[in-house]
Every structure is written in C-alpha cells, then in structure tokens.
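=== Structure Prediction Worksheet ===
Name of assembly: unnamed complex
Input type: mixed (protein and possibly other molecules)
Chain count: two
Listed entries:
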Amino acid sequence: MNRFARLLDRLAYEPGRNNKLRLIQAYFREVGDPDRGYALAALTGALSFKHAKAGLIRDLIAERTDPVLFELSYDYVGDLSETVALMWPKASSALSHAHSGMTSEAEQPSRHNNPPPPTLTDVVTTLRTLGKSELPAQLARWLDELDETGRWALLKLVTGAMRIGISARLAKTAAAALGHKEAHEVELLWPGLSPPYLALFAWLDGVGEKPVNLDPAPFRPVMLAHAIEDADFTDLDPVQYMAEWKWDGMRGAIRWRGSIRGPAKTSPAAFRTCCRRCTLRARSMASSW
Amino acid sequence: MTKMRPQDILSPTPAGLWCKAGGFHIDPVRAVARAVITHGHSDHARSGHGAVLATQQTLDIMRLRYGEGFAGSTQAIGYGEEVRLGDVAVKFHPAGHVLGSAQIEVAGNGSRIVASGDYKDVSDPTCAAFEVVPCDVFITEATFGLPVFRHGHAADEVKKLLDSVALFPERAHLVGAYSLGKAQRVIALIRETGYEAPIYLHGAMETITYYYEKSGIALGQVRPVSGMKKADLAGTITIAPPSATSDIWTRRFPDPVTAFASGWMRVRARARQRGVELPLVISDHADWDGLTATILATGAGEIWVTHGQEDALVHWCKSRGLAARPLDLVGYGDEAGNETLSEGEEA
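=== Predicted Assembly ===
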C-alpha cells in the first residue's frame, strides 16, 4: 500500500501526460501481481466495495485527538482525508527524536511487534467482504500501520475519491505500453477482464497468451465522427456512402447477445429507459434547430 | 535579594526580546545597542546593531551577508560558554537548526530562561546536534506548531528525489532550498546515500555553501551551474533558492522537475500553490512531535510560544498542565505567501 501511495502522491503533483505515463509504467514494472492489477483497477475506477463515509473518518479521528487541535489542523489543511492522514497518532514517530529517551516508559512503543503495513491487495480483498460494522476497527488498524502518504492514499481509496487527475484511458495506456501495445488493444479486451488482471499483465509481460474475450457480443468502442470539409468531397464518391446526422454526445452502442439486450449489467427495463431518454433529448434538440 | 520573576529577566518589546537586567536584546528586529543573536537567518540576524554577541559561525555568516561593517563590534562565544552581562549570566547551547545556531540560556538570581531561537531535534550532518537545556521558562518557536506537521525521515525524502532522477534521466532536477542551512543539509543528505556526481549551485547558493565547506563540512563536488550547457544538465541535480525554481531562470534546464525541500511541503495545498512537482518534506525546524517532546524534556513549568502556530501549541501546553502564553513578537518567519523573501519562510 505504501508503494501505491507513493505513486498516487507523485501523480497528484505531476502535470505532464507523458510523465504520468512514465510513473505508472515504472510502478507496473516494479510491483508484482496481484498488487499492480488492483492498482490498475483503482486508477480505472474498476474497484467495487462499499465506500466509507466522511462521518466515519471524523469519528475515528475524534476518538484519538484533541478536538481543538483537530479543528485548528483541519482549518489549516482544508481536506479531511489529508488532515486525518497527517495527524493520526503514531506512537513510533516519537522514536525519531533525538531525546525521545526523555519521554516516559509508557510512551515508548515497541517497534518489533508492529505488523507489516497492508499491501494494496490486502486492502482491496478485505474491503470486498468486510461487514459494515467491522469497517471502523479495520480502518483504524490499517491507519496505525501505514505512513503519512499511505494513510492519505488509503483514505482516498476507501472514500472513493481519488482525484489525482488520471483518466481510465491513461492508466490503460500505461499498462499497454508495458508490452509495447496500443491502448486500443487493451480497451477491446477490457470488458472481458476483471481485477487483478493477471492474464492481461502476463500477456503484456510477454509470458502469457493474449486474453480472449469470450463475450458473444464483444465491446467495440464507438467510432469517432469527424466533420467533412468541402475539400474532402474531391476524394469521396457520394454513391458509396450514406450520410447521417451526428448528434453530439448522444452516440450509443446497442449490442445483441443472445436473448439479452443491452450492456451486460443493465436490466432490460433500465436499458429501455435509457434509450427513451436519449430519443427524447435528440428530439428536443432537433426541434430547437 | 528576592528571586527574579521570569518577566523581569526577559520581556517582549517591539524591537524584540529585551533583557533589562542584562541590557541586551535577543534577535532584535531593529537596530539596537547590544544584540545577542541565535543564528544567521536574516529574520533573526539583522545588520546595524552596536554590539553583537553570537557564535563565531553566526558572526561569519552575518559578515558574508551584510559585509564587514554589519555591527559596531562583535564578540564570539562557543557552545557551553558563559558570559556575564549586567545582572544575568548568558550561556550558549547548540540548537541543531543551521551551522552556528544556538539556544540562549539567560539565568538571573534563581530563574533560568532558555530562548531557543529556531531549533530542530533530529540529526543533521551539517550542524551541532540540539541539546536539551533544563530550565524554568522555555521560549519555543512554533513554525510547525500543528499536529499535522510531522516531518518523517529526511533520508526517505532524499530517496524520493534520487528515484526521480533515475526515472527521468533526460530531465534536470531543480531543488528549491534556502541558501543558509537547508541547501547544505540537502547536499549532505544526498551524499550520505552514496551519490557522487557533481551537484550544481545557483549563484545565490555559492557563498554560504563554500563557507560550510571551509568550516569542514564535506559536501562532495559542488559546482556553479552558470556556464553549463543545457544538454549537459540532463540527469543532474541543481540546488537553487525557492523563488528561482519558478523563474525564467529555469529555462536553461532540460524539462526541469521542480522539487522543494521544506517542512511546508507536508501540506498538499502548500506544495500545489507553489507549483512544486516533487515536494520534499525536509525541515530545519522541529515538527509537532519534536516541539512537544522538547517542551516536556526541558522540564520547564512555563512555556512562551513565538513565531508560528502559537494557538495550537499553547493549547497543547495548557492541556498538559503547563503555563503557556504566546509571545506576541513580530517580524520573524514572515508567513509563506511572500515568495520574494529569501529567508522569511526558512523551514
């Protein structure tokens, strides 16, 4: 988790796209399975677990810190996860101080008994099955074990708000580049894959076959539409083409897989509602022209 | 003679902490007749005093910065040495902040006050280690006086820098660091990892860095960056004043990565406001854990808190049953916002 946290930390400050790619690739190369797969899932928004609410985190810190000091700190930092990550009491930090020998015996923690900090895999797999009532105690244990950056990343992860300026596409591009592949190839496989993407990384590392998408109606990204300029007509034979209005922002792909219509996880009813909304919106736009 | 009350020994005045019984000010912000100076940062060491008492290094640093005539007369004092000034005895102890930095112990008729100036209680290869001085009243700074400021290990931050240099060998790394203390500490920390390549210096870093070397602090190969070809700076580390790292000056470097070594980098909003890509949490001040551990270790029953986040630290002292009050001194550690200050944000 601490290594993943360092990646998030660096990405959060890095403005350049290519530099972000380099940082993510270096992480994928350096970190083994299944951690890197869960990292890819976290960066692409593919993790699903019940998120912790801000209130829970406030309660945890309230039990451990002076309320006046918390309020002064929160005011100064301006972000709840970050404030809690920074001021979470950590007994062993007193050890780094030259005269810690002066502090009382009771305050001297024994470092040897500290469990190792959780890995990203530990966190993700535990959260998937953890009951709501067990979450506060588990979260507190992890916060005890992680460093400042690790605690910040953990809180970002469990509250479901990463906000580090990384698109899913960028994370897939970085993964693809591991095996010198185009992001497009990963996109085509993506709907058939799930975390921690062992087969995908094996293929990208050159030690496994390319994963096969067994979906009878495999995903195809919607085609990009470009405006036709007058000059283009010199090379186009209108007889060979069919013209169609492009409704901005309203393209959709309808897939037919056996008897089920629509995207795999959408119920037929929800799908019908979605189509109806799109049509209505298209009509209203058309009539306003 | 009755026991002197602490406020009879030292009291805050517009010019700085005033010792009536000894006839001197500590770190005065205006020109005064007699000044006792903790360390060479410009918000503590100003020019134009009649007489200055400080460590030899602090006097040397003031001379380098302000020129020969920076004070009417000077007197050097070593760590552990004591001089009698008026009715009080003044003794210097290492503060661990920068080269030559000292805490000043003032004792008068049964009362002992320690003015710590700026201090840090973690190891630093470029200056003498902080010493706890038992006292009745401890005057502490509070630059990082909020429990969110915990600086961690400086070595981990330097590793972050070197990992970045390894990952981006075609880019130059610019490390913003204050010219007195921080710059030399960062260089020394980099050397501790076994990094042997030359480290380049912005012009503003040269004088003090060479003074550190002359004082026997090994910094490896340090060179001026001026005159270097752009392409030759790929994969190198250059230390510069923080203001220069967001300046047109950076155009001489290939696709520079902007780092900043400061305790302020602990808070993300601070790093972002300054456009820092690689924040390095390396501070020359004690962090929250250091401030609170030091206060307890001095055994002082009364704590005077100055420059920084006084409120939180005063609150903490009171919650521990210690008498505490903010010393409303002005002119130190002028807050972060001012980018043009060379020393104001020493951290």
